[in-house]
Structures are given as C-alpha cells and as structure tokens.
Amino acid sequence: MRPARPDLYRCSATWTQYRDLLNSEFGIRITREPEEIRLPLLGHDLHVDVWEPDRTAKGVLVLVHGGGGNGRILAPLADFAVGEGWRVLAPDLPGYGLTRPAADFDWDYASWPRVVAALANLQPAPVVLLGASLGGLTAVHAAALSGRVRGVIATTLVDMVDTRTFIRVARWPWLAAGALLGFALAPGLIDRLALPLGWLAPMKAMSSSPALQAYFAQDDLLGGARIPARFFRTLHAMRNDRLDPGCPLLLAHPGADRWTPTSLSLEVLKRVSGETTFIELSNGAHLPLEFPAAGELQVAVAGFLDRIAAAEGLPSSGK
C-alpha cells in the first residue's frame, strides 16, 4: 500500500530525497524553503511554491513544469532566480504534484495553458514564464492567452501533435504507436486507461545521474504517478501550427538531451512568431543539472530576465 500523498512538500520524502540528491550528485545546494500556498484557480485547488526575494522584486517568474514533473522539481531554477531578485511561483499543474484538480477535471491538456495564464494574470507586476520540457510549449500557449506575460524562456519546444515526435519521445515506440491507433479508433475507451508515467516516458533520460534517474522513475509524484491516456490524447490534438506568444522567447536547449534532441525544438522554433533567441547548452540532460550546462542556463536566464526588466522599467539588476 502506497503512503498517503502529502499536503506539502516541506519535510516530505519526495522533497528531502530530491534536495539531498541535488547536493550529492551535482553539488547544487538548495538552502531556501519556499512558502507553499493553495490557490483556488479555475476550480482547481492549486499548489504553488512561492519563492520571495529579500528585496523589492524585479518582477514575477512563473516556472512551468513538464509532463514528467511538478513545480518542486524546478527548485534549482527557482532558488537561482529568487537570488537574482525575482519573485518566483512554481505551480503544480492539474493532475500532477500536490494540486487537487477540480471535481470536473477531465485531463484535457488544454487546461494547463489556461491555468498558467490565469496565474500570470493575477500578478501585479509583469511576468516572465520559464517552461521546462513540455512546459516550454505550455508557456508559449499561456503567454498567448495572457496580457501580462513579457517574456518566455523554454528548455525545449516539442510538438507532440507531430506523429513522428509523439513516437520518438515515448519510452517504448510500439506503445506510442498503439496509443495513436487507439486515439483514432476508440478514444473513449483509451481515455480511461491510466498507466504509471514511468511506463510511458523515458524518465531515466531526465538526468545523467543513475541515482536521480532512479528517483525520477520511482517517486510516486513523478514516474510512479498514474496518468490517464486522455491527457496524452488531448496533448496530441493541441494545435501548434501558429505559435505567437506575443513577447520575446529564449530557447536554451540542453546539448546532451537524450529524450528530446535539439533538432526537435528547432523545428518548432521556426514556427514561433516574433523575437526569438536560441542557445544550446554545452551538455545537460533533459533537466540540465550537469556542469557546465546548469551554469550556462543560469547565465542565459539572468541575461534574459535583466533585458525584460530593463524594457519594463523594473528595478535594476544591481544586487
């Protein structure tokens, strides 16, 4: 019997184990603890990590996790950005992490960009979205829905509508191909199937560290979580032919990502309207915690945030 899902990450095994692994495997020490709040939003009881800077915030950075994570997984980026003077929000999107979805939540992926946009619209200051993995494209869609987003950062931009990509990023291509057939022939039946995420996605590709690979694959809030097929069917049905975030976009793709190669993101980047910038990190797995990728990502994020702050007349970059 699995232990009950915690209400908070603080002092839970899922957080303490991850924090300890970050330190032991990559020397990343998270010394801050975010405030954990529950926010009623679009019918959901949204769990949000709130990282407050120790001075007047330059702006608000919303972290958008992917289809294999939750808001707390992005703690290294949150800890860095709050140190740069930004207020950071890291929500668990519906169906994932510690968020309690609305009673009528039907696992439609389209709810994710709506939730992120609604969260951005509540902020008193201009917002930047930073999306990792599937969160990259979610952030692009959310920015298009919100009037407050001034910039988007993505580590990947992967179009799961594309059949070849859908199969390419699955743990087992034969299972993805079978799912696509089921989506077409019996969507109502397929929608009700729920499988552990670790069966569907190559969670080991999240990191180069065997210890972190095991953590991502087995944790009940990550690879051990059971996700209905409807989430992936609606993700596959999402239209990505016109991508217009309405603001500058930075793609900072890990150079050693075995899950979603850089070429997949560049194909999508070509379809993004407006100002775009691309950098490839020297190395880095799907979640780039490795040296020097983690540091390169921090430099890119800091530079982009400073540009947005300057353009908006927000507080200067001085610490």
Describe it for me?
With 319 residues, the protein is of the alpha/beta class. The chain contains 12 helices and 10 strands. The strands form 2 sheets. The chain has an 8-stranded mixed beta sheet, sandwiched between helices. Strands 7-8 form a two-stranded antiparallel sheet. Strand 5 (127-131), helix 4 and strand 6 (149-154) form a beta-alpha-beta unit. Helix 3 (111-121) packs across helix 4. The protein is globular. The mean pLDDT is 94.
Order of helices and strands: HEEEHEHEHEHHHEHHEHEHEH
Tell me the structural class. Answer: alpha/beta
CATH class of one domain reads Alpha Beta
CATH homologous superfamily (4th level) name of one domain: Alpha/Beta hydrolase fold, catalytic domain
Tell me the CATH architecture of one domain: 3-Layer(aba) Sandwich
CATH topology call of one domain: Rossmann fold
Strand content: 15-25%
Keywords:
10 strands; 319 residues; 38% helix; Rossmann fold; alpha/beta; globular
List the helices and strands and how they pair.
Elements: H1 13-26, E1 35-41, E2 44-51, E3 60-64, H2 75-83, E4 87-91, H3 111-121, E5 127-131, H4 134-145, E6 149-154, H5 163-168, H6 173-185, H7 187-191, E7 194-196, H8 197-200, H9 210-218, E8 226-228, H10 229-237, E9 249-253, H11 262-269, E10 276-280, H12 293-312
Parallel strand pairs: 3-4, 3-5, 5-6, 6-9, 9-10
Antiparallel strand pairs: 1-2, 2-4, 7-8
Helix pairs in contact: 3-4
